[in-house]
């Protein structure tokens, strides 16, 4: 086993990996950016190195800075977590060339599976069902039409470099082929530097089922059963569970074995996930994720196998100590991603705030993976996921009840989280019945139900900006005849009662975005004194939804910003007429950049 591991990540996953290290008697090294000086993963590690400024590209994504930290610390291995450098084959190769061991699949295996048509061909070869379509790139509209004529519309045009819904275009009829082909190629070029695309039959309402794999350097490959990740919002998973409520035992067995066959054929090692689409009792290979995933926890809960520990052991050339038949799935587990977002406002990330209260649930069947402490400031430079609640029970029914209980216990104050959304889902018939498909959140769930859930369970709203009248609310506990009562007093028109935190209304008042500052790279002249809509994080503009002269009202989406693989609606706060649009599709922006100006 290693003696010291550098964890090239932050937040909950960095702590998750360090916990595994600790149990194996391995010392831990954290890296951190200027924005993370006081973050949980830095506290948890035995030692920590600053790798640069807040901007991920200048710190967590800086290959040389991360490797240099590992060498300075004398680490003998690097664990990348998920996101950041985890699926970067070039970085994996640099670690392989250093004195340190890469805790993950070889750079070569990452490359073999990273390119979609290569992975499809490889799986087909290994007798793993793939979605009907091409394994070679297509270039002309005629080729697309030929395939569509064979399998029938709709078909999907997918960018070779794509993933997570980026560069995926659905074509419903022949007259859309030309335009969608061009768009897919253009997006592929813009996002992945690769205009190459291929075509598949489009499945209308599939479930997303993925299989956890572990493989060692001695030829052993095991699967740890499946996870159901069908509950997604814009390709962003929100709740995952194991086992899937949608699979028969027979289908479960066949998917597991197919995943195992596929990665075996790819000479893959370490942990990985094989993603499938499942529709009408058939399953189809989609892609392989060559990293530990956010939702690995539910697999750990139902198998009792510590996936992260095995990643470390396998990387240290140890042999998997269990046979496929030893892997038993017992009970049921669900993971709830706790994102600092307002679900009633298009899941927009909290603009900032202080963790005034952090009181996570506990008790039987409750696991919290986080890296937080009450009183901290929210770090808004990276992913908005601040914690994961994982609930385990004897069966799905008990897991639902236990999850309701745990989410009711969970108190976070200071900014919005999606806890109210999770509580809504636990009352949702379709979800409770396990009948939701990947379309459910985006196309079927009534948005007003989300708004009501946030009103009911979200942070208080008594001092929100649009209240004409000042309303002050204070809570008291009184005792009458020996019985306790919670009393809430409201006073209208009174000055706010100062509280130690100076706020008191919870975190849902959005501060006015920063105006452009002098150090902005581009010399953009911003006219007038209307609302300036800015980027809340560094990322790429996926779409611009307004043009000059458009009327927008409060809450309207003006563009979609992708950051850390998430699609975030950028909304107008006050509304008005669009005076300037300062960005275009595919452009990258920094935090604070002005995107759209209203007058
Ligand atoms: C598909 C599909 C239907 N048919 N491919 C979206 C993410 C990208 N990695 C693949 N995706 C899809 N590919 C065919 N041939 C539907 C999706 C899809 C989806 C897949 C998994 C989870 C959520 C999804 C939401 C929308 C579309």
TrEMBL record:
Biased composition (Acidic residues): 463-472
Limits of the Biotin carboxylation domain: 1-446
Domain ATP-grasp, residue spans: 120-316
InterPro entries: ATP-grasp, ATP_grasp_subdomain_1, BC-like_N, Biotin_BS, Biotin_carboxylase_complex, Biotin_carboxylation_dom, Biotin_COase_C, Biotin_lipoyl
Every Lipoyl-binding domain range: 524-599
Keyword Magnesium assigned: yes
SMART domains from the UniProt entry: Biotin_carb_C
Residue numbers spanned by region Disordered: 454-475, 487-522
Keywords on record: ATP-binding, Biotin, Ligase, Magnesium, Nucleotide-binding
Requisite cofactors: Mn(2+); Co(2+); biotin
GO molecular function per UniProt: ATP binding; ligase activity; metal ion binding
Record bears the keyword Lyase: no
PANTHER family given in the database record: CARBOXYLASE:PYRUVATE/ACETYL-COA/PROPIONYL-COA CARBOXYLASE, METHYLCROTONOYL-COA CARBOXYLASE SUBUNIT ALPHA, MITOCHONDRIAL-RELATED
Record's protein name: Acetyl-CoA/propionyl-CoA carboxylase, biotin carboxylase, biotin carboxyl carrier protein
